[in-house]
Write a structure and sequence with these properties.
Helices cover 18% and strands 41% of the residues. By secondary structure, it is α+β, with helices and mostly antiparallel strands.
């Protein structure tokens, strides 16, 4: 059966939204296949990304997201995302769900999650895939300190943009209307945050609302940019600069979402 490593009381809909957003699941995009999480007294985080990937993420579900959050022994787990979201949807008519993390005492990884409501109970097995876990690199959390994204030198990446997901979506929607466009150019110069797109029969440019502090930059991102923009909502902080990747940070109550995109050529 295993020991109870953590017991979490939560709103299943709130937990589902946090996992969906961390996994970048939208109406247009399926989530990634698996999610690796660490669970300790500071919350649940998803640290398994390297900063050099085209798209990396490091998201934290803070204890304040949950009705109660008790960890008896820190652990980690690897689980398939779509089945997890499907089962959370099964419980979404419940006001409260008890999620128990189960595993052997002293083991590095949990073996299962137990879902319990007043009327239903489910045991959901974690993935036992050593080959996947061996490939996990946990370097991205070291690049975030408080609200700052750090360069390899340890200094904060210099340019900070405060804007909204809706403003960034203007660039995504313009690109979607331009035949032949599969990248997303974003620039800050002469005090303006701008984009310029050229398609097969169209050319469009625009200025995005936001406040910017730092040196000018001109970057072009792949389809990962659209995936992030369409998954998040509300206020968004971007941090980048000349020859730096783009960090995207935003929050929901009890959750911090962080994504890092590498610019293309």
């Amino acid at each position: 059966m295993g020991a109870e490593l953590a017991v979490i009381e939560c709103d299943p809909a709130a937990l589902s939204r946090a996992i969906s957003t961390a996994a970048l699941a939208t109406d247009e995009e399926d989530p990634y296949t698996e999610m690796f999480v660490r669970i300790d007294g500071t919350g649940i985080d998803t640290p398994a990304s390297t900063v050099d990937a085209p798209l990396a993420s490091f998201c934290t579900l803070h204890p304040s997201l949950f009705e109660s959050f008790t960890v008896f022994e820190s652990t980690a787990a690897l689980f398939p995302i779509e089945p997890m979201l499907d089962w959370l949807a099964y419980f979404d008519d419940e006001q409260s769900l008890t999620l128990t993390v189960i595993g052997e005492a002293g083991a590095e990884y949990a073996s299962a999650f137990r879902f319990e409501s007043d009327r239903r109970e489910l045991r959901f097995e974690c993935l036992d895939a050593p080959e996947l876990i061996e490939d996990v690199e946990i370097t991205l959390p070291d690049r975030f300190v408080d609200t700052q994204f750090l360069a390899e030198s340890g200094e904060p990446v210099p340019t900070i943009v405060e804007t909204t997901a809706a403003e960034l979506d203007r660039l995504v929607e313009a690109a979607a209307r331009c035949a032949g466009v599969e990248s997303y150019p974003l620039s800050y110069r002469e005090g303006r945050l701008t984009f310029e797109l050229s398609g097969e029969r169209t050319a469009v440019s625009g200025t995005l609302d936001g406040t910017v502090d730092g040196p000018a930059f001109e970057h072009r991102y792949g389809t990962e940019f659209a995936r992030v923009v369409r998954a998040v909502e509300g206020q968004v902080t971007l941090q980048t600069g000349p020859n730096h990747p783009l960090a995207v940070r935003c929050t929901d109550p009890g959750v911090t979402y962080r994504y890092v995109l590498t610019a293309g050529q």
